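pinned: reference chain
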Amino acid sequence: MEGMTYYGALLVIAIFIFSMLRTNHGGMALIGLLLGVYIVYSHETGHTATEFKNDMVQKIDEEAPDFSYNKDREEGKKAIRGEE
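pinned: its structure tokens
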């Protein structure tokens, strides 16, 4: 996040957490706190959830190059029915 957007997002989350704690909504305050931690972590390290997801998808694609969802699904249905 660039410039004041980063600080603005943290301020909004801090106000959200404060208001949730004042109204006894601890679960929502915890969710807000986790969101704030994620924003700070991704800003400081440069790692994001999207980057993690893309890495996992790439690794799966490399490990299973001939996997075809439709073909394997049809073969699975035939095996369940006892067809060859």
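why pinned: The two ends are 56 Å apart (CA to CA). Residues 26-45 form the longest helix (20 residues).
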